[in-house]
C-alpha cells in the first residue's frame, strides 16, 4: 500500500511497477480468501495491459490470466477457469521467457487435480512445468500443495515416475499435455 501511495504521490500515473504491485496485491487477497477483490484487481490489470499493446507484457499477462483462472475455479466456475487457462497458455507461449509457461502449467495442474483428473496426470504436468522452468517452484502459491496431494494419492514411487515422465517431455509435448488437460481432462494422458 505504501508503494502504491508513493507512486500516486509522484503523479506519474499508472507505472510498470503498479502492474507488479497489483499482481502482488491480488495474490495476497487470493491467499486471504478474498477472491472477489483479487479477481477485480486481475481484471483491471488485464485491461491495463491490453492498452499497452506490447508483447513485453505477455509473460505477466499470462501469469495474471492463470491467477484469474484459479480464482474462477475457487469460486466454482470451472468453465471460465478452462477458458482463462487456455488463453494464458497461448499468451505465455507467445513470449520468449519460459517461467510464465511453467506458471501456467502449474495452474493447469491445479485445475486437473480439482476436476478429479488422474493424479498421474497431475504429477506429469508438474514435472513438465519443472522441465520448462528448470526447477520446481517451491515458493509458488499453488504447486507445492498440488504436488503434496498427488504424491499422497499415488505414493512416492508412482509420483516420482510420473513426475519424471513430465520432466522428460519435449517442450511441444508438454504444451500439448497442458492444452489437453485444459480442453478435455477426461482424455488427457
Mean pLDDT: 90
* Count of helical stretches: 10
Q: Detail the poorly predicted runs.
A: none
**H and E string:** HHHHHHHHHH
Number of DSSP strands? 0
The largest sheet, given as strand count, sense and whether it forms a barrel, is: none
Broad structural category: mainly alpha
Distance between the termini: 44 Å
Strand content: under 5%
- Basic shape: globular
Helical content class: over 70%
Rounded to an integer, what's the Rg over CA atoms? 17 Å
Which helices and strands occur, and which strands form pairs?
Layout: H1 2-10, H2 16-32, H3 35-52, H4 58-74, H5 78-93, H6 99-114, H7 119-133, H8 143-154, H9 156-168, H10 171-183
Brief summary:
With 189 residues, this protein is an all-alpha fold.
Can you walk through the features of this model?
The protein is mainly alpha-helical and 189 residues long. Helices cover 77% and strands 0% of the residues. It contains ten helices and no strands. It has helices spanning 2-10, 16-32, 35-52, 58-74, 78-93, 99-114, 119-133, 143-154, 156-168, 171-183. Helix 3 (35-52) runs antiparallel to helix 4 (58-74) and helix 7 (119-133) crosses helix 10. The longest helix has 18 residues, at 35-52. The N and C termini lie far apart (44 Å). The mean pLDDT is 90.
Key structural traits:
mainly alpha; 10 helices; single chain; 189 residues
Amino acid at each position: 500500500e505504501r508503494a502504491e501511495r508513493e507512486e500516486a504521490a509522484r503523479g506519474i500515473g499508472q507505472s510498470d511497477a503498479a502492474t507488479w504491485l497489483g499482481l502482488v496485491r491480488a495474490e495476497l487477497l487470493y491467499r486471504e480468501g478474498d477472491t472477489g477483490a483479487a479477481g477485480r484487481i486481475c481484471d483491471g490489470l488485464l485491461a491495463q495491459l491490453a492498452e499497452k499493446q506490447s508483447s513485453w507484457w505477455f509473460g505477466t499477462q499470462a501469469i495474471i490470466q492463470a491467477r484469474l483462472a484459479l480464482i474462477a475455479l475457487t469460486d466454482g466456475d470451472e468453465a471460465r477457469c478452462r477458458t482463462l487457462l487456455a488463453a494464458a497458455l497461448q499468451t505465455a507461449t507467445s513470449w520468449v521467457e519460459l517461467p510464465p509457461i511453467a506458471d501456467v502449467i502449474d495452474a493447469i495442474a491445479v485445475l486437473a487435480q480439482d476436476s478429479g483428473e488422474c493424479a498421474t496426470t497431475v504429477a506429469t504436468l508438474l514435472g513438465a512445468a519443472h522441465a520448462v522452468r528448470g526447477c520446481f517452484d517451491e515458493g509458488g502459491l499453488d504447486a507445492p500443495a498440488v504436488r503434496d496431494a498427488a504424491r499422497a494419492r499415488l505414493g512416492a514411487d508412482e509420483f516420482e515416475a510420473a513426475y519424471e515422465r513430465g520432466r522428460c517431455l519435449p517442450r511441444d509435448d508438454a504444451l500439448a499435455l497442458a492444452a489437453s488437460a485444459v480442453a478435455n481432462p477426461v482424455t488427457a494422458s
